[in-house]
Amino acid sequence: GAGYKSKYLQLKKKLEDEFPGCLDICGEGTPQATGFFEVMVAGKLIHSKKKGDGYVDTESKFLKLVAAIKAALAQG
Protein backbone atom coordinates (compact mmCIF):
# COMPACT_ATOMS: atom_id res chain seq x y z
CA GLY A 1 0.00 0.00 0.00
CA ALA A 2 1.14 3.50 -0.72
CA GLY A 3 0.16 4.71 2.74
CA TYR A 4 -2.03 7.59 3.70
CA LYS A 5 0.27 10.33 2.49
CA SER A 6 -0.33 9.58 -1.18
CA LYS A 7 -4.08 9.27 -0.55
CA TYR A 8 -4.03 12.62 1.20
CA LEU A 9 -2.12 14.25 -1.67
CA GLN A 10 -4.49 12.75 -4.25
CA LEU A 11 -7.53 13.97 -2.35
CA LYS A 12 -6.01 17.41 -1.87
CA LYS A 13 -5.29 17.70 -5.60
CA LYS A 14 -8.76 16.49 -6.54
CA LEU A 15 -10.39 19.10 -4.29
CA GLU A 16 -8.07 21.88 -5.44
CA ASP A 17 -8.80 21.03 -9.10
CA GLU A 18 -12.53 21.23 -8.33
CA PHE A 19 -12.30 24.48 -6.33
CA PRO A 20 -9.15 26.33 -7.44
CA GLY A 21 -8.06 28.99 -4.99
CA CYS A 22 -11.08 28.50 -2.71
CA LEU A 23 -9.85 25.99 -0.19
CA ASP A 24 -7.40 25.87 2.63
CA ILE A 25 -6.53 22.21 3.06
CA CYS A 26 -4.18 21.06 5.73
CA GLY A 27 -3.34 17.59 6.70
CA GLU A 28 -0.66 15.18 7.45
CA GLY A 29 -0.44 11.64 6.28
CA THR A 30 2.07 9.19 7.61
CA PRO A 31 2.63 5.61 6.54
CA GLN A 32 1.41 4.34 9.93
CA ALA A 33 -1.57 6.58 10.65
CA THR A 34 -3.95 8.87 8.88
CA GLY A 35 -2.77 11.89 10.82
CA PHE A 36 -5.22 14.70 10.32
CA PHE A 37 -7.12 16.16 7.39
CA GLU A 38 -8.97 19.47 7.51
CA VAL A 39 -10.67 21.52 4.83
CA MET A 40 -11.47 25.17 5.37
CA VAL A 41 -13.55 27.44 3.16
CA ALA A 42 -13.51 31.18 3.81
CA GLY A 43 -12.13 30.59 7.30
CA LYS A 44 -14.82 28.04 8.19
CA LEU A 45 -13.87 24.48 9.03
CA ILE A 46 -15.88 22.28 6.66
CA HIS A 47 -14.28 18.93 7.32
CA SER A 48 -12.13 17.74 10.18
CA LYS A 49 -10.98 14.18 10.54
CA LYS A 50 -9.95 14.94 14.12
CA LYS A 51 -13.42 16.22 15.01
CA GLY A 52 -15.05 13.01 13.83
CA ASP A 53 -15.75 13.60 10.13
CA GLY A 54 -13.52 10.65 9.35
CA TYR A 55 -11.24 10.09 6.42
CA VAL A 56 -12.54 10.71 2.91
CA ASP A 57 -11.92 7.25 1.55
CA THR A 58 -15.05 6.59 -0.49
CA GLU A 59 -16.70 8.34 -3.42
CA SER A 60 -19.82 9.06 -1.35
CA LYS A 61 -17.75 10.76 1.37
CA PHE A 62 -15.96 12.77 -1.31
CA LEU A 63 -19.26 13.88 -2.86
CA LYS A 64 -20.60 14.82 0.58
CA LEU A 65 -17.51 16.95 1.16
CA VAL A 66 -17.86 18.60 -2.28
CA ALA A 67 -21.51 19.42 -1.48
CA ALA A 68 -20.50 20.94 1.87
CA ILE A 69 -17.83 23.06 0.18
CA LYS A 70 -20.32 24.26 -2.45
CA ALA A 71 -22.80 25.20 0.28
CA ALA A 72 -20.11 27.11 2.19
CA LEU A 73 -19.03 28.96 -0.96
CA ALA A 74 -22.64 29.89 -1.71
CA GLN A 75 -22.96 31.41 1.77
CA GLY A 76 -19.55 33.09 1.54
TrEMBL record:
<keyword id="KW-0963">Cytoplasm</keyword>
<dbReference type="Pfam" id="PF10262">
    <property type="entry name" value="Rdx"/>
</dbReference>
<dbReference type="InterPro" id="IPR051441">
    <property type="entry name" value="SelW_related"/>
</dbReference>
<keyword id="KW-0049">Antioxidant</keyword>
<comment type="function">
    <text>Plays a role as a glutathione (GSH)-dependent antioxidant. May be involved in a redox-related process. May play a role in the myopathies of selenium deficiency.</text>
</comment>
<dbReference type="GO" id="GO:0016209">
    <property type="term" value="F:antioxidant activity"/>
</dbReference>
<comment type="subunit">
    <text>Interacts with DPYSL2, PRDX1, YWHAB, YWHAG, HSP70 and HSP90.</text>
</comment>
<keyword id="KW-0318">Glutathionylation</keyword>
<dbReference type="InterPro" id="IPR036249">
    <property type="entry name" value="Thioredoxin-like_sf"/>
</dbReference>
<dbReference type="GO" id="GO:0005737">
    <property type="term" value="C:cytoplasm"/>
</dbReference>
<protein>
    <recommendedName>
        <fullName>Selenoprotein W</fullName>
    </recommendedName>
</protein>
<keyword id="KW-0676">Redox-active center</keyword>
<comment type="similarity">
    <text>Belongs to the SelWTH family. Selenoprotein W subfamily.</text>
</comment>
<dbReference type="InterPro" id="IPR011893">
    <property type="entry name" value="Selenoprotein_Rdx-typ"/>
</dbReference>
<keyword id="KW-0712">Selenocysteine</keyword>
